[in-house]
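Lab manual, section 2.4: Encoding a predicted structure.

Procedure: take the sequence of the chain (486 residues), apply the prediction step described in section 2.3, and record the output as structure tokens. A sample record is shown.
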Amino acid sequence: MAVQFHIKTFSTPSDAFYIYKLVENGKDCIFLDSSKRELPYGGYSIIGVNPFLTVKYENNCVYEKAGGESFSPLGTNINVFDYLKEKIQKYKLNNSTDLPFIGGAIGYFSYDFGCRLKNIKMPAKQIASIPEVYFVFYDNAVIIDHSTKKVSVTGLGILQDSEKSVDALVTLIKNNKFIKNNEFNNKCAGNVENKYIKNKQEVFEKAVPKPFFKSPFSKVEYLEAVKELQHYIRKGDIYLANMTHTFSGVFQNNPQDTYENLRKVNPAPFSAFLPLDGFYVLCSSPERFLKVKNGIVETRPIKGTIPRGQTPNEDEINRRTLENSEKDKSELAMIVELEKNDLKKVCKEDTVRTVELFKVESFATVFHLVATITGILKDGCTSVDCMKAMFPGGSITGAPKLRSMDIISGLERNQRNIYTGSIGYFGFDGNADFNVVIRSILIKDKYAHIGVGGGITSQSDPMWEYNETIAKAIALFKSLNADYLI
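Recorded output:
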């Protein structure tokens, strides 16, 4: 029997992050944030409220907790995907609305989990210990429709009466002063009580030294690693691979404020803020990994990046350079074929198609080259099955996928952790939407970690590739008020 839900919708000019600050109640309140709304796929932001179940996978074991309880181990012989499918089926609901999400599980799969899935030996060094998989099941959700400026509050009635829980959230949002997007961006975040730092203004006024972030690679060492990767390509082991490194440094700010900075300096359609159990993930991703809606699957791989120009003329020159780059177009074409092959494992025969290829999209600090691939799920296949078949994404591994993952694991200096994994949701209605975790910051134990990388082919210029990784990190360093050491 399908879960019966309650929903209320009303208009508001308030910014989505302001609403998040009103309704969030501590850890595990995840915010999926479409902070760049000009693009056709940045239409909604989603906030999970009032968790009734949390599941994580670490040390080869699945753990779960209900409500405010502690995590309890379920065992080492449990398949995470089977667990998620069972829970989603248990709370199945029929979504007859236009909303992308009514209720479900929001969370992430780390890249390291992808290595475990594919039996890839990971680098020995671990930058931070966090679960490889983490999902939170919510009794309530707040969905902001950016095109209509309407907010929908949903309740499933699992923790408390659905009408009462929805009314409480609606009242909370309506009874606070509305702040429009442009007003909010110019105001101090202190408009809403900060739950992490008292006397916030005093803290910000203190002069603190700018932190410096450092990669385990020197510039010369990174260039040599790229050349070694090209050696594998020339031998014929692989066609291309995604080489990455991680900048780490002391974190001396407030995670929520840092995310607010990030969404201002680098708005992106697949952003997210995850205040979880002992760590934080801040993400401003431009890339959709996987969307499933009513049985239609979509993936939008990115391959090809160039910095924005300093002037309008230089900006246009750079855009055209990327648009006409045979190297970048070749990279994207290879990844498109890889993703299509992955989709064919779970999609009906002859339904997998490339509907958009070599599209240039603009972001705060870079241009990207993007493709769109769609397919129709086979009968009986779920969004969880689709994730299992496709994860991790080809755009952040290489082609062929398994051999590329094996080679880059031998060259990279540390485990990627959540970087290049996926953040998103599995809806109880069977739909799903996940990003690729790039342009992200992992915060734990007073340190922040920024992963950056790029696709390497035989034509790659190692110095250009290194500089591209720095261009991708600039917005993240800005949000941290930090700099980097070469």
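Check your result against the sample. The chain is about 30% helix and 30% strand.
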